[in-house]
From TrEMBL:
<dbReference type="InterPro" id="IPR000719">
    <property type="entry name" value="Prot_kinase_dom"/>
</dbReference>
<keyword id="KW-0418">Kinase</keyword>
<keyword id="KW-0067">ATP-binding</keyword>
<dbReference type="GO" id="GO:0004674">
    <property type="term" value="F:protein serine/threonine kinase activity"/>
</dbReference>
<protein>
    <recommendedName>
        <fullName>non-specific serine/threonine protein kinase</fullName>
        <ecNumber>2.7.11.1</ecNumber>
    </recommendedName>
</protein>
<feature type="domain" description="Protein kinase">
    <location>
        <begin position="16"/>
        <end position="299"/>
    </location>
</feature>
<dbReference type="GO" id="GO:0005524">
    <property type="term" value="F:ATP binding"/>
</dbReference>
<dbReference type="InterPro" id="IPR011009">
    <property type="entry name" value="Kinase-like_dom_sf"/>
</dbReference>
<dbReference type="InterPro" id="IPR008271">
    <property type="entry name" value="Ser/Thr_kinase_AS"/>
</dbReference>
<dbReference type="InterPro" id="IPR017441">
    <property type="entry name" value="Protein_kinase_ATP_BS"/>
</dbReference>
<feature type="binding site">
    <location>
        <position position="45"/>
    </location>
    <ligand>
        <name>ATP</name>
    </ligand>
</feature>
<dbReference type="Pfam" id="PF00069">
    <property type="entry name" value="Pkinase"/>
</dbReference>
<keyword id="KW-0723">Serine/threonine-protein kinase</keyword>
<keyword id="KW-0547">Nucleotide-binding</keyword>
<keyword id="KW-0808">Transferase</keyword>
Amino acid sequence: MAGTDDAAGRVIAGRYWLMRSLGAGGMGRVWLAHDQELECEVALKELAMPAELSERDRSARIARARGEARHSARLRNNPHVVTVYDLVVDNGLPWIVMEYVPGARDLEAVVGESGPLSPAETARIGLALVDALAAGHELGILHRDVKPSNVLLTTPEPQGPHGQGLTRALLSDYGISLQQDADEPRLTTASGIIGTPGFLAPERARGSAPTPASDLFSLGSTLYFSVEGHGPFDRSSAVATLAALLTEEPTPPRRAGNLAPVLLKLLSKEPANRLSADDAALLFRQLTSEPCGCRKPHP
């Protein structure tokens, strides 16, 4: 992966001029870029390819990028999913061309810098995210890594319909998403578990196949973090957190108010006892008067 200094000014695929780095993680870096063909700004996701990567790991990262682009592109009409425009290849590696959302920060950073959000704002975010997940589930696409760092929040608009600023919430990073019943690579880790401890559904941690219900558990954990400022099973280490996830009930919410029963239903250990996407959307809608422009639930 290129450094932040030496890659700025580089043109990718003969079209996208890299302006500056927007952020980086273990799997890659996201750049602000200028589309020289359409004269607009976009975001480009670059894959991290350390020299020590084995050929197997290199192939897995490329498969992940292609899967993210393909699955996100199928959801491009949903207002709560970061839009993917294209997948281009430069020097043999794929780059994902995405919507650039000015001023967006991820939920983990927002809570870390400004503290937990209110129950009403968290319910608004929940309504947007459950809409995005349900749209994917209807197409057979599971996200598998819903967590605060994969939720982008925009700067509120000055005036909403009720005289208050509105935050747009978007679900990002379909990089380990999976289309059920599809003949495609299933990405795994050395432990065989895909996901993030503390936001992973317990049945997933036990090795069961992912389902829509496991995405909804991760949604509940993410919204719990939003309103409480920590995860429902947070402990001093990843191993202890995973053990708590498997054997203990969530730490009782203290700030969630009327949102608490919804979160706890999403965090049920038994998938069959969790709220469905439509039921969760109905409850989120009851907790906020703000419209979200979401899809209509099936009758």
